[in-house]
Amino acid sequence: MQALLRLSQRAELFPKSFSLSGVEIGKVIVQTSNVDIFRGIHGGREVVLKRYRVLSQYQSNPLREYLFVKSMIREMIIWHNHRHPNLLPFEGVFQPDDDFEEAYLVSPYHANGTVVGYLEKYPSVERRLLLLDVLSGLSYLHRNNIVHGGIKGANVLVDSQGRACIADLGLSRLTDAQILTWTSIQSTIAPWGTLLWQAPELLSAQLQAQEHIPPPTTFSDIYAFGCLAYEIFTGLFPFAELLTHGLSSFQLHIIISTRVVKHGRRPQKPAVDSPACLRYGLTDSIWDMMETCWDRKVRRRPSADDLSKLPFLVDVLDDRSVQE
Fold this sequence. Notes:
Layout: H1 2-11, E1 19-20, E2 24-31, E3 35-42, E4 45-52, H2 54-57, H3 62-80, E5 92-94, E6 104-108, H4 115-121, H5 127-143, E7 146-147, E8 156-158, E9 164-166, E10 173-174, H6 182-186, H7 200-207, H8 218-234, H9 249-262, H10 275-278, H11 284-293, H12 304-308, H13 311-314
Parallel strand pairs: 1-5
Antiparallel strand pairs: 2-3, 3-4, 4-6, 5-6, 7-10, 8-9
């Protein structure tokens, strides 16, 4: 896989075996500053197509366009070569005009949407099972020396059986080979989208305006997992109280970084009479798990394997149907 990454990025081409034809593009269902997500049809099944919008923004900057094409190729190849029940499958690339600007990354469509939307619709489901699903996918990535780099509720989907799967490997990287440096990726993809889930060691470098931003690690993935658990059990973003003040991205970045890095702040524990505790199953044990994920000493954070063995997760009954 490393050889394929080097070869494909040098040639600025992805393997022809990834190419799909006969894909029907439907309406846009999600838009962010970087991507457009479409529903579509391929082979008689509903699919999702992801197209990076930022590529067109970089056409006047050949270096950034070159780096972005490389990062797209990296995402395709890493995604294609890692398959697990709790990772969103990669089906291929659809290029109507053989142009990277019109390249769509294709994956199955999950009608349940993101884990956050799923829990809004089905608030009584067993949330611990969703944690286990994410930990299973995260353990698989980490065992294969892959750091995700963008764990958050918007990047976790739920399939028709109510099982969570990790999506969006756009920020993922190999931990055992500097095939594409994090600095290069940072120059093409702004970090604001994952700001609220970023570990203090990453925020610290940004706060100090260091020239070389450190890469995400398995430890920062675990910090982000703690924030995802917070989303799952509260229905709120971490530091949601700051999002109502109409702050700009830059202002929010400075405030979050200062609070997390300099003052050691973490998301607020809900009150005992909050919906999180009364309806959603948040317990002291689950909160303690989140706090271990947020440990300021990076190497004291548990691994995904360690977390999946916690008693309140081991004992949970999984009565969901088995996917064929």
